Amino acid sequence: MKRRPLPAGNWKMHTTVAEAEELAREIVGSDIPADRDVMLAPPFTALSAVGAILSGTSALLGSQNVCWEEKGAFTGEISPPMLKDVGCSMAIIGHSERRQIFAENDTMINKRIVGAMQHGLVAVLCIGETLEERETDKTFSVLEEQLAGGLTGIELKNADQLVIAYEPVWAIGTGKTATVEQAQEVHAFLRDRLTRMYEKNIASQIRILYGGSVNPNNVDELMSQDDVDGALVGGAALKAETFARIINFK
Ligand code: PEP
């Protein structure tokens, strides 16, 4: 069965509330084909405002992180009920910027996934190798470790609870994109690993996104690959016109 494509925009630490509202309005006002999901992940400060704009549309609201606790003394964190309160249905977890700049590890990322899922948020688990790891033939062992570490103890009732985003660190924000062969090879590997972890009918339906300098010029070829089910987009998601073109991949 074909998986429903998911183009997703990670706005990172960009946009004021007013800018986010304008961008969200332009994106939902563009033509979003009915056969795909679209997720927008603005910064926390704009979630509520963007959530109001997405309400009643087919576009989904995502957060860029989520804590495992519901409330309490966790300065700087945001909880699953808080995110649900403003309309979030998805949460990006384990982005390489969280891992590299803020020292998040697989144990912490696993806790975030557990917390998100307990509250019905779809977890978008990001994994990816560094350039050094790729050049020293560690790509697959690193990805396997990140996948297994992030998903420790996670049971799935259905495939929609989880999305995997393969984001080679060397391709994020660098203008370098994995070749379609590299992306497909990794995605097929991840699908195989998921099949060992979950029932076949669930593993075969988990969406695996590619992320790393996706833009209007490379999205069609990437999306033509069997195991590439969508794109997690940073820079090119900040302009409505370019993201609309990505959403409308052919
Ligand atoms: C990302 O932040 O997840 C990302 C892939 O960024 P960019 O598209 O800018 O490489």
Summarize the topology:
Blueprint: E1 6-10, H1 17-29, E2 39-41, H2 44-54, E3 60-63, H3 80-85, E4 88-93, H4 96-101, H5 106-118, E5 122-127, H6 131-135, H7 139-150, E6 162-166, H8 180-197, H9 200-203, E7 207-211, H10 219-223, E8 230-233, H11 240-247
Parallel strand pairs: 1-2, 1-8, 2-3, 3-4, 4-5, 5-6, 6-7, 7-8
* Principal-axis shape: globular
Tally of extended strands?
Answer: 8
Strand content: 15-25%
Side-by-side strand order of the widest sheet: 1-2-3-4-5-6-7-8
Question: Helicity, in percent?
Answer: 40-55%
Return residue spans where pLDDT drops below 50 for at least 5 consecutive residues.
none
Quickly give the structural class.
alpha/beta
Order of helices and strands: EHEHEHEHHEHHEHHEHEH
The residue-averaged pLDDT reads 97
Which small compounds were modeled alongside the protein?
Answer: phosphoenolpyruvate
The protein's oligomeric status is single chain
Total DSSP helices: 11
What's the gyration radius in Å? Answer: 17 Å
Cα(first) to Cα(last) distance is 19 Å
Largest sheet: 8 strands, parallel, barrel
Short description:
By secondary structure, this protein is an alpha/beta fold.
How would you explain this protein's 3D organization?
This protein is of the alpha/beta class and 250 residues long. The protein is 40% helix and 15% strand. It has 11 helices and 8 strands. The protein has an 8-stranded parallel barrel, surrounded by 5 helices. Helix 1 packs parallel to helix 11. It is globular. It starts with 5 loop residues before the first strand and ends with a helix. The relative contact order is 0.15. The model has no long low-confidence stretch (mean pLDDT 97). The site of phosphoenolpyruvate (PEP) has 13 residues, from strand 8.
